[in-house]
């Protein structure tokens, strides 16, 4: 009987993988539903004897089975998109059935946890520090140091919280990890629990990921005995982007409004219910079982670049020809990622901009594509790696519209705690609308003779409005507690700086209004 | 008062033992009753020994909870950056006119299908690579 492997990842299923699997089963094939290889432009992809066919439709079933299909991509592991990757966090992607304990154990599952239990907390933290693993959620804080703080904190009850509230547009690595290899995340959390002395874990998962919720719940049920005495539970969010911020997430988990908390106190010392808490992103925890294998920490460390060690699961998204998941050691350039690996835009038009790091990341111009993927290098260029999502735009994108959307998004998703974010974002949208209009004339009321103190001039031109926008962005940047208000200015200002022609017919106005040029 | 109090009591009892039970309760109430109205808020507040204001504050914070039920089929369209880059904005008018009053269209920010947008969700079903034809079919069959 022919063994056919088809992914049951949400993206493949959205593309019709379930119907395809049924069709192959009807033809008498044995169908295994595996995780996704991450080549999304080929999903739903059919794999027979290591060879891939995609994107497959019901009409292709017969041709694939009798070997005449024109959708063959050859041996999957030799495909350039896969062969050039260094897969550590996603080492099982495409290869195992997500909810099969048998597959998980056969591919080295639970070895990290077993070894962690033997070597004890101090040594675990030591190895995580040695691996150089930094938080993959966006901030890039060294995971080992966080664990060390929680390990040393006094308290009868500590918690491990997994931040699976992956709300950034252009990112889907958490989703793929949770759907494709749920046991690895659970193992990572159990190891973290072992390290810091926590027996309870929570996975805060967004409601927009129904497949991940279902699979993680099923996986937790299957491995209860293996991770015991560690216990873990999935908590589903309710559609608030800001809950991906760790303190806001903790409030939400406690059943409160997802408002950001001021730090200090750090969650490591006073986190969930005021107890010492490790809050880590899915990808950080997912990398841990590998690091805890014999020699795993060294191997992980060797994959990196500069002070960014290990691999980064990069997500190629938006208007890109070959979109998907690309895990690679730090140091790769944007040009390689977008133009070589990603194959340029899906529309075939020239690349106009890429946004790295989700809605709060700066827009990067193709002139800067020699920038290397590295936390420090990105920070130096006023950009951020964030969660490693790259969204590509072709030359039809209107950057004023994208800047306006950044402000609009912030105003919709602001938790309301900090005034610059809550009100500033609304004003930002208004200013950008006025910039599009070319400024603002004095209105009838202002011009009325009774309004003695109102200026009777011609109003503000686009240049004045741009000056206001720049001021507003400064205020938001320095006056907000968390990254939502603090980083929304990055996409706005980077769009303004690099594509002034999209904002006004007279780009010199932008030049004059920018802070580095103002008197 | 309506007869929802029994269902509500059951939901509260189901989650009462949890650490931070409010969100799991609200998620189930929204799922089973289609909204979290004032009456539910009052009962939940009583059940968890919170003030009604506390519960109301939480309910209004999150986008997923509706104050009144909406029985119409629901299509969520992603309009975040990656789907914008793939042209979702051009589909919105088509979707709205196909929906009319019969279908509820709402915006969602990111379904995690960013490499294959424009994407949409109906119930627990996801849809990718939508074009005008596909989104019309999707809305008409919702």
Automatic annotation (TrEMBL), chain A:
Entry cofactors: FMN
PROSITE patterns: COMPLEX1_51K_1 (PS00644), COMPLEX1_51K_2 (PS00645)
Keyword 4Fe-4S in annotation: yes
Signal peptide as annotated in the record: none
Pfam families: Complex1_51K (PF01512), NADH_4Fe-4S (PF10589)
Domain of life: Bacteria
An annotated Gene Ontology molecular function: 4 iron, 4 sulfur cluster binding
Keyword 4Fe-4S: yes
InterPro entries: NADH-UbQ_OxRdtase_51kDa_CS (IPR001949), Nuo51_FMN-bd (IPR011538), Nuo51_FMN-bd_sf (IPR037225), Nuop51_4Fe4S-bd (IPR019575), Nuop51_4Fe4S-bd_sf (IPR037207), Thioredoxin-like_sf (IPR036249)
Swiss-Prot/TrEMBL keywords: 4Fe-4S, Iron, Iron-sulfur, Metal-binding
NADH-ubiquinone oxidoreductase 51kDa subunit iron-sulphur binding domain span: 400-445
UniProt similarity note: Belongs to the complex I 51 kDa subunit family.
Protein name in the entry: Formate dehydrogenase
Organism phylogeny: Bacteria, Pseudomonadati, Pseudomonadota, Alphaproteobacteria, Sphingomonadales
TrEMBL record, chain B:
Record's keyword terms, sorted: Iron, Iron-sulfur, Metal-binding
Keyword Metal-binding applies: yes
Molecular function (Gene Ontology), one example: metal ion binding
Protein name: NADH-quinone oxidoreductase subunit E
Organism listed in the record: Aurantiacibacter rhizosphaerae
Biological classification of the source: Bacteria, Pseudomonadati, Pseudomonadota, Alphaproteobacteria, Sphingomonadales
